Amino acid sequence: MHKLFFRKILPTVRSLSLKLYLLLFILLIISFAGIMYFNVTFYTGHFNESMINSAIQASDLIKRSTRYSMLKNDRENLSNIIATIGQEKEMEGVRIYNKIGKIAFSNDAEEVNTIVDKKIEQCYVCHEKEPAHVYLNTQNRIRILDSNRGYRVLGLINPIENEPECYNASCHGHSPKDKLLGLLDVKISLKSVDEETYKTKKNMVLFSSIMILVTALLFGGFILRLVHVPIRKLAKGTREVANLNLDYTIDFDSKDEMGELARSFNRMTKQLKAANEANQEWSSTLEKKVKQKSEELKKAQAHLLLVEKIASLGKLSAVVAHEINNPLSGILTYAKLCLKMIQNPASLSREQNNSVVQFLSVIRDEAIRCGDIVKNLLIFAKKDFGKWTEESLNKVINTSLQLVKHKIQIKELELLQELGEGNDIIYCDASGIQHVLVALFINAIDAMSKGGKLRVKTILLNSAHEVQIVVSDTGSGIPEEILPHIFEPFVSTKESTGLGLSVVYGIIQQHQGEIEVESEPNRGTTFVITLPRRPVRGQVGDGAVVPSTLNPREKEKEDE
Question: 177-231 pLDDT, tens per residue?
């Protein structure tokens, strides 16, 4: 349950629209809080300043209202004025101090004729230093007090100066040297002011909170519609395209950048779909074409192998014809002698009979020799490629050498055979391997002059899984510029090469083997063929199947 909740809520928490909304909401709160603080501070300061000005005006008004009674020294009238003013709703107290600090008049009769300490707050501002200050600035005339009834009180002192009208009057005994005759102390309640200020602050906070909430909702609606919904649709579209759903379109239409992005995305999806369909069609067509061309290449390779075989066969035929001609001449000669000698059998001596037997033996041997030559030629010419059997590698090499033996003798070359002893059985296409060897032998013979050396060597590797055939000559070698390309089709080192080396390479590849060549101009060439004794099952040449084992009876059947 909790995992499902977090799985649903985490994408929303991490979304760009929520982060943008939170940022705007914080900025909104800061802005409104700043504006509200500025307004409250400005309003409170302005209201307090107005209240102070009103208090000063009220104090001056009281001072002027009592001036006439003071000049006439009409104490009764002055007391009535003070008492009347003190009964006003906002008035907390009205006092008149004389110059020695005694309360001469007050709205509270109990305070009259009491002397106050000069250290109290309303006196200390003037009597901080003696003589007392006559002139005070507005800030020093004002004080804020805390009433015992839980609200603030504004106190304002207003000095009563000794004017000429005072010390020149007949009723007064003030000296002209006196600067100050007394002090008017007025206390005004700030209860209504504080209540109004609190109400104003409360209303401003409430109004600001409502404005913040309404603005936040508007911001949320705009962000939800213009940012969150388009981004969610775009994100879903990208996920669908990532899952190869190229039929998906974003159903969002707007004239702003988000709408343009959605339209571009839909166009991109259509183009990707068309490109994907074109690629699939092209891949399907390409696969068919590759398969078709592969079949054509197989046929061409088989045809090329046959052509090369026929070309090699033609070349071998001339050699074989010359080889057969010699024993046939001997057979003909000895046959004539035998025929002449047995025409008169009665006259034959014992010695002549022995000669006839010897001649017939020669005829038999030469006929056998001709038969072997023709047999090897038929084996080479027989179209039996693709027949995989277990064969003796040394036997395949000897059979291949028999086909080119006469040509070796004609060019007076030295044949060096170093065939390894031991298990030389390999599973292969014997006819294909024979063609490879005949091609290499003919190329080596053609590259050498009289007295050259043809070396054929087999190595039965210690791993017991592979064998190597080394064919080297002391001929003219292969030019360096041709050496990297000798296994490519239609590349030749001379006018006629017999079986092409590209076909040789193909046969070796069918046997999962490798062929390497080293050559130096005028120093000779060496081919090294590495063949597995038993290729991997299912990966050998066309149609071949690798058996797990062959018992002796199955081997005899295969040989037959």
Answer: 666 677 788 888 888 888 888 888 888 888 888 888 888 888 888 777 777 777 7
Dihedral, 545, 547, 552, 556 alpha carbons, nearest 10? -10
How would you list the strands of the sheet with 453-460, edge to edge? 414-418, 453-460, 466-473, 524-532, 514-520
Looking at the domain 384-560, which fold is it?
Heat Shock Protein 90 (3.30.565)
Contact residues for 441 (Cβ-Cβ < 8 A; gap 6+): 400, 401, 403, 404, 454, 471
How many C-beta atoms surround the C-beta of residue 28 within 10 A?
16
500: left (phi over 0), alpha (psi -120 to 50) or beta: beta
Contact 265, 234 (CB under 8 A): yes
Q: Please say whether the structural domain 18-196 has been given the CATH code 3.90.650.10.
A: no
- Judged on CB neighbours under 10 Å (0-12, 13-18, 19+), 514 is middle
Looking only at the bridges linking them, the beta strands covering 180-189 and 91-98 are antiparallel
* Torsion sign, CA atoms 213, 217, 223, 224: positive
458-485 tens-digit pLDDT = 988 766 788 999 999 999 888 888 888 8
What's the pTM value of the predicted model, to 2 decimals? 0.39
Amino acid at position 254, single letter: S
Q: DSSP characters for 249-285?
A: ------SSHHHHHHHHHHHHHHHHHHHHHHHHHHHHH
Tokens of 500: 């092409």
- Cβ burial 255-288 (10 Å sphere, 16+ → b, else e): eeebeebbeebbeebeeebeeeeeeeeeeeeeee
Length of the chain in terms of residues written: 560
Query: Would strands 152-161 and 388-392 be described as parallel, antiparallel, or unpaired?
Result: unpaired
Q: What is the CB neighbour count within 10 angstroms for residue 464?
A: 10
All CATH 3.30.450.20 domain ranges of the chain, comma separated, are 18-196
Alpha helices, DSSP H, located in 99-187: 121-127, 138-141, 164-167
Give span(s): CATH 3.30.565.10, the chain: 384-560
Instruction: Kindly tell me if the per-residue pLDDT of 517 is higher than 90.
Output: yes
Residues ≥6 apart with Cβ < 8 Å to 82: 66, 94, 95, 96, 105, 106, 107
Tokens of 166: 């005072």
Q: How far apart are CA 534 and CA 126, in angstroms?
A: 125
